[in-house]
Each structure stands twice: as structure tokens, then as C-alpha cells.
Amino acid sequence: MWKKQSKLIAAIAIVIIIVVGIVVVWYVTRPPPAPRKVTWSVIAGFYTDAMNKIAKDFTEKTGIQVEVIGIDNTVLYEKEVMELAAKTGAYDVVTIETMWMSEWSLAHYLEPLDEYIAKTPKEEINFEDILPHYRVLLSRGTHTYGLPYYTFDQGSIFRADLYERKDIQDLYFNTYGRALRKPDHTMTWEEYYDICKFFSKVVPQEWVTQPGKTFYGLSMMAGRFGESQDEFMALLWGHGMDWVDKDYNIIINNELGVKCMQQYVDFLALAAPNSIEITYDGCVGNLRSGICQGFLQFFLDQWPNAIKTEQEVPGAKMGIGTPVGGRGYTGVFAVGMSADSKHKADAWEWIKYLSGAKAQKDFALMGGSTCRRSVLYDPEFYSTPELAHKYAHLKAIADSAALLETLPDWEKPPRIFMLPQSAKIYVGPFIDVMSLLANHQKTAKEAADLMADEIAKISGWYPEHKPPAGWTPGFEKLSLPVFKEQYLSWLFQPLCLVGAILPSLKRPD
Amino acid sequence: MVSPSLIIVFALTLYPLFYSIYLSTRSYDLTALWKDAFIGFENYSHALNEDAYLAEALLATFKFAAGSLLVQIPLGLGIALLLNREFRGRRLVRTIITLPLVAAPIAIGLVWKYMYDMKFGIIPYFFQVVFGSSPHWLADSTMALVSIIIYDSWQWTPFVALILVAGLQGLPQEPFESATIYGASAVQRFRYLTLPMIRPLLVIVALLRLIDLLKLWDPVWALTRGGPGIATQVVSWYLYRIGFLYLWVGYTASIALMFLYLIIILSVIALRRIARL
Hints:
The complex is a heterodimer of chains A (509) and B (277).
Chain A: H1 2-29, E1 37-43, H2 48-62, E2 65-71, H3 76-85, E3 93-97, H4 101-106, E4 110-111, H5 114-119, H6 122-125, H7 132-137, E5 139-140, E6 143-144, E7 146-151, E8 154-159, H8 160-163, H9 166-176, H10 189-202, H11 205-208, H12 228-238, H13 255-270, H14 280-288, E9 298-299, H15 303-306, H16 309-312, E10 318-321, E11 332-338, H17 344-355, H18 357-365, H19 373-376, H20 385-390, H21 392-404, H22 422-427, H23 429-438, H24 444-459, H25 487-505
Parallel strand pairs in A: 1-2, 1-3
Antiparallel strand pairs in A: 3-11, 4-11, 5-6, 7-11, 8-9, 8-10
Helix pairs in contact in A: 2-17, 9-10, 13-24, 23-24
Chain B: H1 2-24, H2 42-49, H3 52-83, H4 90-97, H5 99-102, H6 105-116, H7 122-131, H8 144-169, H9 174-181, H10 186-214, H11 218-224, H12 235-245, H13 249-276
């Protein structure tokens, strides 16, 4: 009996020793705890080095790693929206274009940041330091869904040396009976059209470009990319026009809308021929090749690329200013938090850091375009003429923003941003219609009508071209009539399936 | 033994097909605020009756397919006839012409985009030198489709040629020898012997290419993105846009299924032809 018990005890002891041994070995050899990490989806190639540097600084400060997932600009929207819609939480922090904000916030893809902002010490986030129109653009209702880290507001970028030449000034005066002025917000589109025409058709080629090259009044982003509509918006907003009126009736096909479309085509006729197939990088390429004086309107963040013209084209001196007509495209890339992020606290830390004053100043020093007043007006950027020229885009952004603030409240932000399906409109029919217009496959009137129809269809307002009674931007829950029950879908399927696979099942003769 | 295969077939083929059919009957929009609902044939009806973009896309697809076949089949036959002859370096030539087939379409498409570039592309440069001017290959709405046809023909004509070479080498020699003895010219031998004998193979190659051409996507992405305007917006590109940008899941499924039916019909015809060989 005793012997039997001893054996049992020995067996138990051996089992315990083995288990303890396994636990000890596991404990000693276990992998180190996973580091805190957030994933951030961002446009590939847009100041990637600067972003990686800022992310590294952030990691050193907080211990939180940032996995920067670079995605090509042309597919950023679809990649992000797929992950957000599928609720994967693959990206803790997402890059948001202003036009996507309504759709994503209403679909609850984004976590409201209000609580996080409220819990953060005021001096740490300094929310009021962010330019006000960006704060408006990134909020819906009472909620803030993103903080800006990169602006691509539009303004005028041009070959200042050409405007300062006496012979060119005289020729312009003799041709148009007025002085040649550099483009800025005081200039009308009609005057700017004359200037572009002057450089395309009147100025002798040998005055402005090298032998073998043809010089043009402007380059445009009329290729089938996501920037053609931004370019058109400068023209539209510069005329004080919008896609929808203050009651959100679609008015893009009214008289002024059609005029803007026609002006776009008229400008395109003066532009470098490859304008029809390029976007912003191609435009900068044309400028740096010395074949154009400027653009219709251009993203101010491209200034660091544009001033390289001064090294590459003999005698070139670049100029930058506020947008013709007083209002260009007001665009911003913001960082928002995925509603399905599993690392929300860490994601907030990164959002806060990246959009904060220190990171924004670092970013600006590396050539980026910031959204914070304290950085835009920082004297360090303007302490010498050389620095002021190098960072002239910061002043242009500040000046353009100051202009915006003089507009009546209801015009900030433009109402197109508030349409519930603005993202879809922006990445879809806007590009289609602008491309059709640019390629003369539609007249200005046809393009405007088509655009109005497309906005109405996507918004669920077709054919009325206006929202249902009582609709309020940003808060509504649209509903279409549900005229059949779901089970009918399942009853319908076998019929379709038979139709689909029967031909393939039939044995060949 | 069969079960794993059945599970894989079900998971990868039948389930997606069933689910697509289900989606095609619904107003499912990934980001819409309205409720997803059963709408019966509404998506199909809209696609067939009201979608002008789809009609344009179908037209562009058939233009592209017809244009490509008109280039690839005769050119492939010509190359096949050349390769069917004995000459020094024939094996090397056969190897070289297969190279476009192994190239990744998007990567090579981007190379062609640069070749078509009006500022530094070799093709406009060549036209400038020889003819004094060059069309805007990718920016002109009439030339863009032609540019894609040229690119696709460069890549896929070797495929046509290789299949036809195999067919030509399998032809019996006796009729050709008899025809030569009776004084038939090379053209007559081709017209009355070669062509009728390889006609079934020509039809199969044309059908295989047609099925592939209808699904064209990569060159459009690399070269034109459906533009200029909607000149090169073929059906698969249109599907991509409404599916992944507009996120109209239900509507996209309905068009994709209709397109699938079309390709199934063509496939059945091709299979029957192959079975008759």
C-alpha cells in the first residue's frame, strides 16, 4: 500500500517538475513583449522621408512605433475605404482628404476625436493654432474627425522673371493697354486669360524659351487624374460659384457654371499640349523644362519643386502668391482614427504628435506645407531674403487663409464638402466629366448638365437636383424605399444561378 | 478523396458566384446612407436601359477587341508562316518573340506609356523624324484606343504565332507536295491548302484572344486610365471604377454577371470548337 502511494507521489512530483520546467523554460525564452505600434496609411512618395523622420522622433519620445504604409495617391481612397468598410482596423490612423470627410464620418468609419482633444492639455494640442477653415473642413456637426498635417491649398505659382522684364511689359501694355501684373487674388480670370494668351500667342518665342522649344501661357492638370477637378474648382470658386447653392440645390449647370466650364476649355486651348494627359507632376516638369510661365492655379505645396526651375532654366526666377479670383481649392490631408482601431490611445498619440506644433515645424523645415498659424508666421522662415524665398509657400498659404476669413461664414467651407457622398462624387464623376470636357467629348453645357445629374444620382436626389425637404447637411440619414423583403433575394438566386452555370455544364458535341 | 476538391471549388467558385448573384439583386452601396434593399432586376434594367457609360464602355470594348483581332490574327499568321520555314537561328527567333508574353502587363504598360510620351517618348520622336509630326498617342481620344491596341498586339501576337506554328507543323505534307508537282504557286498553296487546314485553329485562337481581350484591364490602367474622356473606358475598367471608387457593390455585381454570361457563351463556343478538332 505504502509502496503504491510512494509511486503515485513520485509520479505527481515528476509531472510537477516537468510542468514547472516547461514554464521556467518558456518564461526565460519567451519573446519580448510586442512593442506598442500603430499603422498609418499615407500617400507614398509625398515627403516620405520627412514623415519617416517625424515618426522616428515620435517613437524615440513615446516608445510607440509607427508603421508608415505608403499607398499610391491614385488608389489611396479605395484602399482605405475598403479597410474601413470591412472594419478590419488594418490602419489605426488613416489619411483623409477633405472631400472624404462627410462620407466617412456619416458612415461611422472614423472615431470622433472630441473626447481625446478634451482630455489633452490645451497647450499641448493648441487647437486654435490650426487655421480655422481646416478646423471647419475636418468637423461635421459638433464632432472633429481629423487633425490636419499637410495642406495643398491652391494659389498662383509663376515665372516672376518674365513679368519683370521691360520688353515683355512693354509688349503687353501695347497689346492690351494695361500693365502686366503678377497673378494674385486681385486679378480677374479674364485678365489672367489675357496674360496666358499673351505668353502663348503674342510674345516672340525667342524671348522666352530656348531654340527648339515652344513656350505656352500655362500648363494644366487636365489628365484623367484626381487633380483635374481641383484645378476646375479654383476657377469655379474664384468666380464666387459653387456646385450647390445655400439650400443645397445643385446649380453647377447654371449660367455661371457653364461659363466656368467654357473658360476651363478656353484656358486649355492655350496650355502646353501635354496638359491633356498630365497631372501636377507633369505640370512641374513643364515648368522646369522652361516651356510655360505658370499654371491655371496650382497647389502651393509644390513650391519646393517649382523653385528648382531657377537652377534648371537660365535666368528663371519663380514667384508665388494668392489665387486668382481670391479663392483656390482649399485642400488638406488630415490624420483621423479608424473607428475599428485596436490601438486607439496610441493612435491618438500619433495624431496629436504629427499635427502638433513641433512636428509641423520640423515638417515645414523639410519643405512641407503646414496648417498651423504659429509655424506659418514663424519668423525663422523669413529671417533672410533667401529663406523667405525658399519658404515663400508658407506665406502664400497664410495669405490665402487670411483672404478666406474675410468671406461670409456660410461660404466656409464650400458646400460641396458637406454633401453626404462628396468622396464618391470627387473620385468618380468629377474626374470623368472633367476629362470628357477637356477632350471635347462634351461641350461646356453638356458637361455641366452631366455633372449636375451625376451629383444628384449619387446623392440620391435625382431627378429633382435638390435635397428632400428638411434635409440638413451632415446629419441626415437618407432612406430609399425598401419595397421587397430580403428573403426575395434568396428566392431569386437559384434562377440566376441556373442561368449562369447551365451553358457551361452542357457537354460539347 | 473528392471532398477537399469540392470544398475548394465551392469556396472559391460557387460561393462567390452565388454571392454575386445575391448582391446583383440588391441596392447595396458600401458607403451609402440608405438601407440596402432587394430590388429584383432593377440593377440589370438600369444597366441595360439607362447607363450611357456602360453602353460607351461596351462599344469601346468591342472596338478594342475587333481592332486587336484584326491586327493580331493576320500578323500572328504571318509570323507563324515565317517561323514554319527552315532558316538559321529559327529557334533563337522563336525564343525572342516569346519574351513579350512573359512580361508583367502593368510594368511593361508603364514602359509603353513613356514610349508614347510626347516630350521624350521614342514613338512620337520617330514620327516627328519620319513624317514631320506625331499624333498625340494617349491624349487624343481617337488615338488612345489605337495606342492600346498596338501595345496589346505587341504583347499577344507572339501567342497567336506560337499556336499557329504548332498547327502548321502538324499539317500533312502530302497535299503540299502534290500541289507543288501540279504547279500550284505559293499563294495558291496558302489559299487552297494552308488556310482551310488551319482554319479551325485560327477560330480557336481568335476566340481565346477574344475572351482575353474582353477582360482587358492592365494596359488601360497603365496607359490611359480610361481616358481621354471615356475613350478607352472598357467594360472591365468601368467595373473597376463603379466597384472600387463608387462602391456600388450591387450594381457592379449585376454588370459583372452579365459580362460573365457573355464570356461563358464565348467559352462554350470555343470549347465546342476545340472538341471538334
